Amino acid sequence: MNTAISKMFNIQYPIIQGGLQGLGTSPLVSAVSNAGGLGLITAGSFASKEEMMKDIEAARRLTSKPFGVNIAIGFRKPMDEFVEGAIEARVPVVFTSGNNPEKYMDRLKENGIKVVHVVPSVRFAKKAEAIGCDAVVVVGYECGGHPGRDDVTSLTLIQKAVDELSIPVIAAGGFSTGKSALAAFALGAQGIQMGTRFLASKEAALHSSIKDKLIDLQETDTILVKKSIGKAMRVMKSERAIDLAEKEEAGASLEEIFPYISGESYLELINTGNENAGVISLGQTIGLIKEIKSAKEIIQDIVKEYEHRLQLLYRNLK
Q1: What is the pLDDT of residues 276-313, one digit of tens each?
Q2: Structural domain range at position 258
Q3: How many domains does the chain have?
Q4: How far apart are CA 12 and CA 7, in angstroms?
Q5: DSSP designation for 187
Q6: For tag attachment on the chain, is the N or C end more exposed, with fewer CB atoms within 10 Å?
């Protein structure tokens, strides 16, 4: 698993934790990095730059390995202070998602920070390359969170991105096993990013009742919401999520659906286990996850299965 991405980030395995709002904090981040992957502090988990920087310091007390910061650039909340916080904290890599990170590129690059942008299409991947991103995460339709508007699966999207870009591609959307990691590398990706798999980890600060439910879910237990506002989002299929989708289908206004998608409702869900409070991002790969494990066990399982499958493939081709 020695790839351009593992070399770029100075990590043992090109396995990267996805951005997890409210959950991508020092306990999980340090565990992923200690296990040889790349943990990402999720800026959206914090009310201020100062809070984020305190958690970065907490992560540094827990690991001496590299980790980065994930910053979702949107309309709801300015993220300038979090970009400055990442610079002040001298993290080696920043992952951005959502809107164009171009206005931050000069500041990040002049401070020696690698920049990776998350994209749902080849068109946006090319734009990320053009503005100077060091790599891109390409997310397919299967992903938890925002799959974009084109409904293209990872199998097609990753191959096309690899063919048309000169910077490394990190595969996301449907990856949680050693088999899927091997498939990603066969498609030309240089790494994988996983959100759903680490959501179902011992270190993720998700309420235990939600974790217990995750391991019983199937690949069909997700649903797309927020399509009515042009921000399609794959979430766990719950009564609350189904109700939201039905309201959108009936033409509900933003004001009517906001209580379902607000930050407050999400925090209530992850902190109290009340799944009827809001919605939580979840990828279709949840159907392959049957046990809550530590981040170390998750990464070790992936590496072991990857190596085993690679050996079988080699023997079959001889």
Answers
A1: 999 999 999 999 999 999 999 999 999 999 999 999 98
A2: 222-281
A3: 2
A4: 8
A5: T
A6: C
